[in-house]
Amino acid sequence: MRIESIVLEVNGQRHVVEPAGRRLLAVLRDDLELLGTKLACGEGACGACAVLVDGRPVNACLLLAEAAEGHEIVTIEGLSTGRSSAIQEAFVAEDALQCGFCTPGQIVSATALLERVPQPTRAQIHEAMAGNLCRCGAYPKIERAILRAAGGA
Amino acid sequence: MTARFVRTQKEMEGRYEDVWVLVDEADDVESWAPDADLALVGRPAPRLDGAARAAGRVRFTVDVRLAGMLHAAVLRSPAARGRVRSLDLDATLAIPGVRAVLGPESDLSLTTRAPLLAAEPGYAGQPIAVVAADTLEAARAGVEALALDLEILPHVVDAQEGLNRQSFTTDPSDDARGDAEAALAAADVTIELALDTPAQVQTPLEPHAAVASWDGDTLTAWVSTQGMFSARDELSRAFGLRKDDVRVRTEFVGGGFGAKQGAGFEALAAAELSRITGRPVRLVNDRHAEQLDGGRRAATRQTIRLGARRDGTITAIDADAVIAMGQGGWVFPVLIPARTLYRCADVRALTFPVKTNLRAQNAFRAPGVMEGTAAFEQAIDELALALALDPLELRRRNHADVDQVSGLAYSSKQLLACYDRAAELAGWAGREELREPRGDGLLRGMGCATQIWWGGGGPPSHATVRLDADGYASVITGIQDIGTGTLTGAQIVAAEELGLPLDHVRVSGGDTRPNVYGPVAGGSQTTPSVMPAVRSAAAKVRKTLLQLAGDVFEIAAGDLEIRDGRIRSRDGAIDVEVTEVTGKLGDATIDGSGSRGPNPDGFVVHTFGCQIAQVAVDPALGEVRVERIVAVHDVGRIVNPLTASSQVEGGILQGMAFALTEELVVDPTTGVPVNAHLDDYKIPTIADVPEIVIDYPHVPDANLPNVGAKGLGEPPIVPTAAAIANAFAHATGRRAGALPLTRDRVIEALA
Known about the structure:
- The complex is a heterodimer.
- By secondary structure, chain A is an alpha+beta fold.
- Chain A has helices spanning 24-31, 86-94, 103-116, 122-129, 139-149, and strands spanning 6-10, 13-17, 50-53, 56-59, 72-74.
- Chain A is globular and about 45 Å long.
- Chain B folds into three domains: 3-59 and 458-595, 2-Layer Sandwich (Aldehyde Oxidoreductase, domain 4); 64-153 and 202-293, 2-Layer Sandwich (Aldehyde Oxidoreductase, domain 4), CATH 3.30.365.10; 300-456 and 602-750, 2-Layer Sandwich (Aldehyde Oxidoreductase, domain 4).
- In chain B, 26% of the residues lie in helices and 25% in strands.
- Chain B has a seven-stranded mixed β-sheet with strand order 5-6-3-13-10-11-12. In chain B, strands 8-16-15-14-9 form a five-stranded mixed β-sheet, with helices on both faces. Chain B has a four-stranded mixed β-sheet with strand order 18-27-28-29, sandwiched between helices.
- Classes of the chains: A alpha+beta, B alpha+beta.
- Chains A and B meet through helix 2, helix 3, helix 4 and helix 5 of A and helix 1 and helix 16 of B.
């Protein structure tokens, strides 16, 4: 079997990878060792694996790595290069995380939301974040953190 | 150190055992006064590792990567009960990349009480074989190649069927006092309520996981566990090693909620495979395996009969609980609310732990007490209705002044204050007006429920504090912070005692290597167990620092104090940075170790609380919407209100989901759970969250050592489902005979 290489642009860097039919999440975690993106269900049901693809949050556990070629991929590491972003600071200040396992995905989705809707309403937050499960139940504070980062709280 | 051995009672989730405890008399630090002017304790502080968690920088067990690491995959029983006819281990070993395979017949170097791998699986999802390979894909191919031939045997998954067969995991129990039957017969008013409660799956987003690596005869295991020391002890027993030859690392855990106790199958199997192959081995549950075999709170069927006098005095409690245990496990104290919540002399409580072909029940946040409260507190509301009494008033009238089982006093109890504050915050007085139609077609109602749980903690628990020349302190604990924020709590307590700024105190945990023991993160015991040990350790360092300062400034240590990182004399003549003294240490450090003393004799320690729920029911769609929950919990002193409220919110949301959406559904024909995935097992989303209002009496428990804090992990989940069900009944005048209140059940109840 000939293994095809592809080029993925992740966090502004180009990587040559051999996806071999794997999902983007597996390539990010196993080949590129970007371990901030989490596998929690592998079925697109929880959002722990959310990454930005051309600025939109996508479940990396479902997306075939090959389908991500030619698109800009940003992971939690790409959002955490310098000091904390406003949404990350707000998550810490409001305690919008407990165990922290879903948090990278929450930050990714919230970042995409605030990019698209800088002043979201509660309903818009619920709509945008409903695909990111948090079993610890940090939701009330996630909502507050997003409002705080948007300057609304 | 002035060491003594003391014989004392230790409590864990309501189970008491007599233990010897090492007590250091120098740990006898006086508790802070309720009105003490504290700089840090009781003030909100963001968690110390928050920024790292928010940046995705923290490494969970599933993130551990070691050179040469193998990946393991597990063959699990597809059937509820069966007998392995054949497994093709040779075919598996022939798969490229496969390094080892173990089946039920394999010779293992470890010894466990129950077989690690089952030849006759008793539930769907039970491990039968495990394969280690260079890649996860190869390991999974190896599992496929085993070509399992399983003879399917008849199963029992229905609790009633198990009860009819009188098939139990342990003998049924009868916890009685007085004569409940006679008291019922003599009562002015009696009610009866029956309720089925669902099987609820803990569903941590990080599944059970372990990575094991041997170096000669010493083992290092990264385990996603709530109890790294119990994992260490379990692994050392299984492999015949000294405790110190096993190192368990558990720095970050992606949730546990009770499901992750000890080493678990994952660490035992990974360690065995690692021993065979000489390579590190990683074993991580996939989501389906986690939902099938990670654990669950078992389904129950409860019947409650109550008798009362016309004035509302409860005179008889007769309760029984049938628990669909699965293959075994701990029989949760489901009837503790019936036995202890209210004053009553004549009580009967029958518990039937029915054996079924499901995984053994294991702990889930407030095990037993939560599902017991869901039924018992609905019965109390039915009694209020029958007596035409306000439900809160009925609860006040039957307040228990002493523990109803032992007759002992409570170490502290602020339940009446909780009722008053919750009623005020919820607008309980306007409860009847709430039912008036608002033109939106929804039926509204308000309901309350009382909470009881343990949460007093106890010994052993240790901490070491080390202060360096820069005036920075390092606190070494045995905490595994599974998301509760207890490491931050330790930082706050140490900084308070040392008089240092918060960011001058670093806290470590999550590693058994330093051998600084901390308890399992369960039973709401970490804060009440560990914080006093941290404070005692810090107090010793503080005392030494002041003695050294006395030497430097030629003044009696007793005339000095430390606050905000400065050492001051009471007369104001000395006011210097701590480093004026510590700077002279060079590379030396000031060390102190502290241990948690025993709880006082003659008391029982409990937490209490009250929650009030407001719901809106759509009678056409059968939808129950929780609009608001007020939660007031008496947990003694609050160390960090920010992380405390996170615990309360999380508990409420899991309790709400128990009432409305979560239920592991088992196909009676096959005995196999049909919704063991995240898309069909419905945990809450952000869009389901009600308004949550939280308060506490803020009364430290004066009978607990030196901090006066009780645990808060479990109390908030206890009353939520009952409060919601009572609000539903208030809104609709009906009760469903089962939780969760799914749309079909609601429509049926309203028909």
